[in-house]
Design a protein that fits this description.
CATH architecture of the largest domain: 3-Layer(aba) Sandwich
Structural class: alpha/beta
Number of strands: 5
Largest sheet: 5 strands, parallel
Distance between the termini: 29 Å
Strand order of the largest sheet: 2-1-3-4-5
Helix content: 55-70%
CATH superfamily of the largest domain: Glucose-6-phosphate isomerase like protein, domain 1
Number of domains: 2
Number of helices: 12
Shape: globular
Oligomer: single chain
Strand content: 5-15%
Length: 271
Amino acid sequence: MDPIVTRLSEVYSELPRGERAIVRVLLDDYPFAALGSLRALADRAGVSPPTASRLFDRLGYAGFAAFQSAVRAGAREHDRSRLQEFVARSPGTRGAAEDLRAGLDGTLAAVSESQLAAVAALLAEAGGVWAVGGPLSELAAEYLVRQLAGLRPGAHRVPGSPAARARVLLDLGPSDVVVAYDFRRYSPDTAAFVRAARSRQARLVLVTDAWESPLAPHAEVLIRLPREAAGPIAPLTHEIAVTELVLVATASRLAPAVRLAELDELTQSLQ
């Protein structure tokens, strides 16, 4: 379990009523409830911002911003631990397990805070976000869109057919962002769409490998996975881990608590 979640659970019974309300919101929607503004969190808990601020002082953080930094750091560790647990349960894969662990550590270390901040700013402020990938990396693009759609409107997968892609391109402009996942045997279809999108001034976030997609010169933000991420299985693991880091960083800029709560209510009403 995340140590922050454990700590919140441990102190809950000792807290004043207002601070307990904050903890309930955090635990019910962790980590996203922690990544908006302090006021949004306080409003959701029905308390004042000073009450919320006292909780983080009591927990030993130098303010709410320090608490959010700890949550983001925990997301990185969660990705690493989840992979380690998976490979540890797989018999006869000790060498492969070590390779996967080393590769994932290298991938997480290769994505800097400044890169995450730049991607998060683009995804939070874009008029629309369109994700595209190749034969395998399309799964990472799908994951990005599914999660991002809960955080903000206007998140879409690039459709598959040329006619449908043309209709998307027709309305693309400088306020839109394309997130492309492109790895060796680089996809000609991805390249064609991205180049057309860039010709219409859409901005590009590119996730690629150490050998670098031919689309790299077009990227506003370029994330390279290290050589250790290459292989028949490892790349998708690493792409998802990087995508989760991007999502957590983006959530911190969007204050999505109200939207996520409404999404939960709508989901429940349809069951």
